[in-house]
Write a structure and sequence with these properties.
The complex is a heterodimer.
Chain A lengths: L3 H20 L2 H23 L5 E7 L4 H12 L3 E4 L4 H9 L5 E5 L17 E4 L4 H23 L19 H21 L3 H8 L1 H6 L5 H30 L8 H25 L3 H18 L11 H7 L5 H13 L7 H21 L4
Parallel strand pairs in A: 1-2, 1-3
Antiparallel strand pairs in A: 3-4
Chain B lengths: L3 E12 L2 E12 L3 E5 L6 H8 L7 E6 L2 E2 L4 H7 E4 L11 H12 L5 H7 L15 H12 L6 E5 L7 H16 L3 E6 L2 H7 L2 E6 L2 E6 L1 H10 L13 H9 L6
Helix pairs in contact in B: 5-6
The chains are: A mainly alpha, B alpha/beta.
Chain lengths: 369, 252
Amino acid sequence: MRSSRLYFSTIWVLCKTLTTRWFRDPVALFFTLIFPVIFLLIFGAMSRSNSVSFNIAVINHSDTPFADSFLDQLEKNKVFKIKDVQSFDQAKDKMGRGELDSIIELPQSFGQLDANKAPQGKVTVYYQEAKPDTGQTVASVMQRVTDGINSKLVATSDPLTVEQKATKTTNLTRFDYTVAGIVGFSLMSLAIFGMANGFPSDKKSGALRRLRATPIRASQLILATALEYLFIGLITVVIMFGVATFLFDFSMRGSYLTLMAFTLLGTFSLFGFGMAIGGWAKNENQSAPLSNLIAFPMMFLTGVFFPVYLLPLWLQSISHFLPLTPIIDGIRMIITENASFLTLGPQLAIIFGWTIIIYAVAFRVFRWE
Amino acid sequence: MSEIILKVKDLRKTYGDTDVVKGISFEVKKGETFGILGPNGAGKTTTLEMIEALRPIDGGSVELDGIIVGDNPQAVKEIIGIQLQSSAFYDRLTLVEQLRMFASFYGAEVEPLKLLEEVELTEKAKSRVEQMSGGQKQRFSIATALVNKPKVLFLDEPTTGLDPQARRHLWDLIRSIKKKGITVILTTHYLEEAEMLCDRVAIMDNGQIIALDTPKNLVKALLRRGFKKEQHVEQANLEDVFIDLTGKGLRE
């Protein structure tokens, strides 16, 4: 009878052989090792530009000198980029298309002097109903501009003021926050788009049929392949953090050992999905749509491209249990909060749960041809 | 009386409403080369794959070296070597790497170069399968089937698609394997191949064995039935002409 030692030594030899084979495939090398770096460079560059600005249009119905100087003030404000428009209707159209964030309207009476010779007026800020946060921000900036003018006119000091100061308590940049999502996304791509196509093409060539004629078991092939990809995933992660550190002064708060161990666990569970898809699919025509079906929701619901807290509540609660979410969250917590395996308990529990489920499925649905 | 290594009894396979193998029985002796002959679609490959534990057995039984195949397919795979009809291997791996990998499936120690020497592929040790000719691929395929020193070697149409030189070369290889005492079971639809290599042949048609004997006895029985072939005085045929003109050297 085959001993368990033989069971694992076969996995080991097969894994080494498959890894050798993988490294001789230039296309796989490019997409797995270079592509994540390109992705990282794009996202890194994007998260570097930290300034926020709003595109606004000003509809001025007033011809008072005060209105003119008010507009001068606005133009000097860096938060606003003033766009030319011909009419209010045109401005509304532009806002509808997203070209404008807000429209500022000054009424005809704006800047006319009252009995005390002080200018009067009301600024109206229009914004899209769907974007109340934009409207509030623009309105509060406008408020500051008008307050500034008011205080000069009245020449009194305000008893209560608010001072804004940006804080960087942990010296984290937005990039430090983004990097976890990029790493998670790359590992998921490797698992689902990379490996889910490997098995079907080996089935098509007949190579798996030949293996089946030997005593090897499906579980050995699956585990050897998972191990192979774990090694490849490890290289990807090292390269990505290398690039992050040298090009983007990425600051690591946690331990690299914890990060590696956690990432390997997460990667192993993600590979179960690629394995289940590829093991089940008879050919690429079956594996490709299924890969997309699983990968796309995860791309948008797990905090890769935007934070989970922006999602509606019911989606958030689903998101927490998707297999990729605890991986990205965990990596982020290690990087930004120096989380340890103890504090990562909830994430690890979800990862373990998925790992057991998905490998049980992968072993069961595997087909040799 | 020599030992029986394979006993097939009333073996059946059905796909939907079609009976592909209709209850065939035969025995193979240890050390002999046994041929299963028949036209395409006769059920040769299906029969072979049921014996090799690659396809579920629908009815009847197969006993190979004392192991009931239906009950213990894994144990059967350990002691046999298989060359599939269309052999395919992982690309981007050298022959030596492939052989090591195959040996690991059996927990077997293997000397890749010695094995390659047996199939005359020593100089190709560092090549990849995708760079080899059809005949070389078939010989390599036999090498992978030998890594576990099998008791029975199954060859499914080993010479289909090969040119006459490569075919003769493969015949020599099969004879040398037989000499080592390995039982060889092969399918073919080339009759002269069966005549040259096989101790006994079973002729299959339509899922049934319609004749089983040594090639010589089959011919004798036919003549006894009063068969007369049109007289041929030539002592050679077109293939002899071809080999004479092009030589026996391998083209690859």
